[in-house]
C-alpha cells in the first residue's frame, strides 16, 4: 500500500491528441511510479477522428487496466461534461485535471501533492502567473489574450487566484464533485467559474507555480468565437454571483 492510502485519479480529456497521448501518459506513469504513488489515468476521448482511442487502447495494453482506464464517449460533447463523466468513474480520493496536449507537464505532479499535504488543502491550482511560473511558446497575441482574460476575471470576480483560466489542478474528489454541480458555464469560462465557486463554497485553495508550454502537436482551437464566448460567460457569471 502507498503511504496514507491515497489514490490519485487523473482525468485526461482528449480530442485529436493521438500524437501527444503516448508521451503524456508515459510521463505521468513515470511521475507517479518514481514517487511510489497509487494512481489511475482516466482517458475520456470524444470519438476523435484522428483515432486517439486506438492509441489509448495500446497504452492500456502496455501499462495495464489498473492504471489506464478508458471512458470514451460517442461524440464531441465538450470539456465540462467530459470532467463530469470522468469523475463518475474515478476511484481515487484525489483527482488531477490536466490537458493531454503536453501544455501541462507531469513533472509538477509531486509539487501539487506536496503542497496539498502541507495544509490539507481542498484545491491546489497550478499558476503561470506567480514567481516561478511562466508561459513558453506563445506569441504575443496569445499571451496578451490570457493576461487580459485573467485580469478581467480577477477584477470582476476577485476570487484571489492568480491563474484563473488555467486548468492544471488537484482536487479532493468530493470537493470537485460539489464544485462541478455548482458550476454552470461551459467552454473557456468553466475553469474560472470553478475557482469562483470554490471560494464561495469556502474551500481552501493553494497555488503552485507551473511553467506552461504551447501544445506539442496539433492545432490551437482558440479563435475569436472562443474569446467572445469567454467575455459573455464572464459577464453572465458577474451578474449571477
Ligand atoms: N473529451 C474531450 N476533450 C476535449 C474536448 N475539447 C478539448 N478537449 C481536450 O481538452 C484539453 C484542452 O483542450 P485544448 O484544445 O488544448 O484547449 P487549449 O489548451 O485552451 O487550446 P490549445 O492548446 O491552444 O489548442 C486537451 O487535452 C484536448 O484534447 C472535447 O470536446 N472533449
Ligand atoms: Mg491546450
UniProtKB/TrEMBL annotation:
PANTHER family: DOLICHOL-PHOSPHATE MANNOSYLTRANSFERASE SUBUNIT 1
GO biological process: alcohol metabolic process; dolichol-linked oligosaccharide biosynthetic process; GPI anchor biosynthetic process; isoprenoid metabolic process; protein O-linked glycosylation via mannose
Database matches in InterPro entries: DPM1-like, Glyco_trans_2-like, Nucleotide-diphossugar_trans
Catalyses which reaction(s): a di-trans,poly-cis-dolichyl phosphate + GDP-alpha-D-mannose = a di-trans,poly-cis-dolichyl beta-D-mannosyl phosphate + GDP
Pfam family, one: Glycos_transf_2
GO cellular component, one term: endoplasmic reticulum membrane
Recorded metabolic or biological pathway in which this protein acts: Protein modification; protein glycosylation
Cofactor: Ca(2+); Mn(2+); Mg(2+)
Gene this chain is encoded by: DPM1
Annotated source species: Physocladia obscura
Main location: endoplasmic reticulum
Compartments it resides in: Endoplasmic reticulum
Name under which the protein is recorded: Dolichol-phosphate mannosyltransferase subunit 1
Function: Transfers mannose from GDP-mannose to dolichol monophosphate to form dolichol phosphate mannose (Dol-P-Man) which is the mannosyl donor in pathways leading to N-glycosylation, glycosyl phosphatidylinositol membrane anchoring, and O-mannosylation of proteins.
Domain of life per record: Eukaryota
EC assignment: 2.4.1.83
Keywords: Endoplasmic reticulum, Glycosyltransferase, Magnesium, Manganese, Metal-binding, Transferase
Amino acid at each position: 500500500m502507498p503511504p496514507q492510502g491515497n489514490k490519485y485519479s487523473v482525468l485526461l480529456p482528449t480530442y485529436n491528441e493521438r500524437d501527444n497521448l503516448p508521451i503524456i501518459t508515459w510521463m505521468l506513469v513515470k511521475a507517479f511510479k518514481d514517487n511510489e504513488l497509487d494512481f489511475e489515468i482516466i482517458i475520456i476521448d470524444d470519438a476523435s477522428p484522428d483515432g486517439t482511442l486506438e492509441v489509448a487502447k495500446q497504452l492500456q495494453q502496455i501499462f495495464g487496466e489498473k492504471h489506464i482506464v478508458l471512458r470514451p464517449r460517442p461524440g464531441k460533447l465538450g470539456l465540462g461534461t467530459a470532467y463530469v463523466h470522468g469523475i463518475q468513474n474515478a476511484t481515487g480520493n484525489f483527482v488531477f485535471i490536466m490537458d493531454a496536449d503536453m501544455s501541462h507537464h507531469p513533472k509538477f505532479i509531486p509539487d501539487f501533492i506536496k503542497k496539498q499535504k502541507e495544509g490539507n488543502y481542498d484545491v491546489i491550482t497550478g499558476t503561470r502567473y506567480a514567481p516561478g511560473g511562466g508561459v513558453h511558446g506563445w506569441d504575443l497575441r496569445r499571451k496578451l489574450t490570457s493576461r487580459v482574460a485573467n485580469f478581467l476575471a480577477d477584477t470582476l470576480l476577485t476570487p484571489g487566484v492568480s491563474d484563473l483560466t488555467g486548468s492544471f489542478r488537484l482536487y479532493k474528489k468530493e470537493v470537485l464533485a460539489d464544485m462541478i454541480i455548482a458550476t454552470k458555464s461551459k467552454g473557456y469560462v468553466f475553469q474560472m467559474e470553478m475557482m469562483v465557486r470554490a471560494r464561495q463554497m469556502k474551500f481552501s485553495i493553494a497555488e503552485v507555480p507551473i511553467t506552461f508550454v504551447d501544445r506539442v502537436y496539433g492545432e490551437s482551437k482558440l479563435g475569436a468565437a472562443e474569446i467572445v464566448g469567454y467575455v459573455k460567460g464572464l459577464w453572465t457569471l458577474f451578474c449571477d454571483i
